[in-house]
């Protein structure tokens, strides 16, 4: 019975060209992670639901993909729950595993489970897919890769400085010009202290973020509308309208936050990180941005966000420092700092700017023709030599018509075709056709290798 | 609330050392796949259950991990099924997706779904985890990687020859000595024809397989017990006791199977593949083995199995030719040939033989000490130079006691420590300590790079 096959909504197949490009991105990031002393780990796709539930809020619990227990999952269930349609309470009775939702919770679980084997500070990276039962839409998938590096067990700001260098290194290698935005949670806490309304911090950052678009009058109006007092808004003015260099902004923040111990701690931390990074030099543009408030409930110090300078797209990397990664698993007080590369958006940026180097292609470099069994045998001997020189090569497996064979090379954008017919065999050579220029040359295998490998 | 964290049974965490080794294996296989013109694809972890069900037999259906529908999965279900405890019939009402069970069915689905974009013959490889709700036991996991290459849309035996070379190339690079066992489904069909009992073919291959262990008398007794007639057993004798070189075995098979058109076709195919491979030369030992019967219900031509010669472990790679990959999805008659590398067993073999090259380690090569902020700043400048030379390096993030810092390098088997203290700073140099020999040298950064990179 024929079925029309499809894949679940929100998921994707990756074909050869996409895969070669994705591998280029992941290989680049992986090699830089290694260069900075981060070690790769992998955790299972499935975690116990007890590990995952309650870690992402009520909404997150709903978005977890849950795996039906194997065998007779109906045995022993509470029938009342079924009759009342109470699927939320029934779920834990018929499902005890779920697919990982991010890499952070599995990492926390890993650290606690293996704490006796780990050397602190522990620097790990992880590149694996995660799954979320979100409503699919453009750029949002139900299966996507995350690409995280974290160091836990050290409070030193050297870790922040190193991660900023690492980010700079990755995007320099990829050829993407970036702006790294920096903030510190303690600065935001200081601002909240200052105006005596800690619960309004999100409203404030949202409003400040609009200053360039709507101007100071509109921002002040919005703040008032969001319930910030006129007095508080007056106090906030220097923060909202902050201009100038990073050094000038730091000085201004230090002045405004002088009365807040937490706020000044945040300014000190920012200063140390920025000085450290500047001492070493960065390709990226570094920008102090007090409106940056990502991961507000989670981050406790440095907050990092990266934007591409030449493509209008959201954040392509983000991260920050946290205080208590593993408390929920019974191991309190473990702090760390981490970053996460957004592979899908980086892919889009590289496509938009057409930045893939030719080495990012993993396709066949030369295709040998097949004119019958004796020609094919001769071609296969040459093919072996070509491959041992590291050139990706194939032979057309059937003695099909020349046109069909050339058509394959064309369709797959294979740059060279090696023609081995009777006359070539007689000379122990091949005719190498450059598929871009159409030029043909009678060459020895060694000469062909040199030409293709150029 | 503290939970004691664990992972679902049958799944694994991979730590830094295991990951570096697994990456070495996957990178090696991936680069050889590319070298032979195979292109990588990836498919989603989740497939529609309609794609997966019925493809692996009744037992396989049970072993699929099924994903509970999101939201109110109880709405509209048939309550009678719940009351009767008929979980098998209930499952499709509350679950429409499952985790992929192997890479073959998703590949078939991919080929049909994307048929208009694909160039035939289509040579693809795929390295991804699969999930099976099998009872976990030693060496059998509920999540494990498969590593498959297939070419579809070509009947040419050149594909078989190329895949055998590819296998040879992979294991030569890994340093594993192997025996490749070859058989052909048509030879087995010929034998079945010969004795007039096609349904007994599995019994026959199982018995033949024991010849070396239990001897001809016991094999014949077992065949009789399994319901093969004495006459048939007599006819089978030359096949069971077949000895000598591959050429001699082929000649013997050709004689015995002379009356079976199918059998002779199988011998011809074996001959062509073996001749083709021998012409090109293999590192591996090639063995014609008529007892080889893997994938009997699936393979229609060549059957391939690879064993490690220096470690007693099951098959480490296998594959064969099939006739009808995509028929079940409404695209009949697509034949192909494929192989699958057993990554977990290859990992075990490399461990047993201690065959990992030092380049397979991805860990830090040199750790810089941290004696305080000014020393750390000096160290970080050197660190940047070291990294840009491609050396994996880190700095101890905190100004901890020397003993603690050295302890980290020891525990992580970091081969070099770069000590940057006051005296080194004064000279603009570092003291490089070889952690294996204990030797220390005062060196410039460039000299240190040369030493570490050796």
Question: Would you give an account of this structure?
Answer:
The structure is a homodimer of 454-residue chains. With 454 residues, chain A is an alpha+beta fold. Chain A is built from 18 helices and 16 strands. In chain A, the strands form three sheets. An eight-stranded mixed β-sheet of chain A has the order 1-5-6-11-10-9-7-8. In chain A, helix 7 crosses helix 13 and helix 9 runs antiparallel to helix 10. The longest helix of chain A has 20 residues. The radius of gyration of chain A is 29 Å and the shape is globular. At the A-B interface, helix 1, strand 1, strand 2, strand 3 and helix 4 of A face helix 1, strand 1, strand 2, strand 3 and helix 4 of B.
Keywords summarizing the entry:
homodimer, 454 residues, alpha+beta, 8-stranded mixed sheet, 5-stranded mixed sheet, 18 helices, 44% helix, globular
Task: Produce a short descriptive summary.
Two copies of one chain form a homodimer. Helix content of chain A is 44%, strand content 19%. By secondary structure, chain A is of the alpha+beta class.
């Amino acid at each position: 019975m024929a079925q029309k096959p499809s894949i679940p909504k929100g998921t994707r197949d990756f074909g050869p060209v996409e895969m070669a490009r994705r591998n280029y991105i992941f290989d680049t990031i992986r090699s830089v992670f290694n260069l900075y002393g981060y070690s790769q780990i992998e955790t299972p796709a499935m975690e116990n639901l007890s590990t995952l539930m309650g870690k992402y809020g009520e909404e997150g619990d709903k978005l977890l993909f849950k795996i039906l227990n194997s065998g007779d999952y109906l045995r022993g269930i509470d029938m009342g729950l079924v009759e009342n349609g109470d699927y939320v309470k029934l779920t834990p009775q018929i499902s005890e595993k779920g697919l990982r939702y991010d890499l952070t919770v599995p990492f926390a679980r890993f650290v606690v489970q293996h704490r006796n084997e780990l050397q602190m500070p522990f620097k790990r990276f992880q590149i694996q897919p995660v799954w979320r039962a979100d409503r699919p839409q453009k750029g949002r998938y139900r299966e996507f890769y995350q690409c995280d590096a974290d160091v836990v067990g050290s409070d030193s700001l050297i870790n922040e400085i190193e991660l900023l260098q690492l980010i700079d290194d990755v995007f320099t290698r990829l050829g993407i010009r970036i702006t790294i935005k920096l903030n510190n949670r303690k600065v935001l806490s200081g601002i909240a202290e200052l105006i005596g309304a800690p619960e309004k911090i999100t409203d404030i950052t949202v409003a400040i973020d609009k200053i360039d678009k709507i101007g100071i009058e509109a921002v002040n109006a919005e703040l008032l509308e969001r319930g910030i007092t006129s007095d508080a808004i007056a106090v906030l003015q220097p923060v909202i309208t902050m201009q100038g260099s990073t050094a000038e902004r730091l000085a201004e923040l230090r002045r405004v936050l002088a009365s807040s111990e937490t706020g000044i701690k945040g300014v000190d931390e920012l200063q140390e990180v920025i000085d450290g990074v500047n001492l070493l030099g960065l390709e990226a543009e570094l920008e102090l941005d007090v409106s940056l408030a990502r991961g507000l409930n989670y981050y406790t110090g440095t907050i990092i966000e990266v934007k591409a300078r030449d493509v209008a797209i959201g954040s392509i990397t983000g991260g920050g420092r946290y205080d208590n990664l593993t408390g929920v698993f019974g191991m309190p007080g473990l702090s760390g700092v981490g970053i996460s590369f957004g592979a899908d958006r980086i892919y889009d940026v590289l496509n938009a700017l057409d930045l893939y180097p030719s080495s990012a292609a993993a396709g066949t470099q030369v295709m040998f023709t097949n004119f019958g069994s004796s020609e094919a045998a001769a071609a296969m001997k040459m093919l072996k030599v070509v491959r041992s020189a590291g050139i990706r090569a194939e032979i057309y497996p059937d003695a099909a018509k020349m046109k069909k064979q050339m058509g394959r090379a064309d369709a797959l954008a294979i740059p060279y075709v090696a023609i081995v017919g009777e006359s070539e065999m007689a000379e122990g050579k091949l005719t190498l056709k450059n598929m871009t220029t159409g030029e043909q040359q009678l060459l020895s295998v060694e000469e062909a290798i040199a030409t293709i490998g150029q």
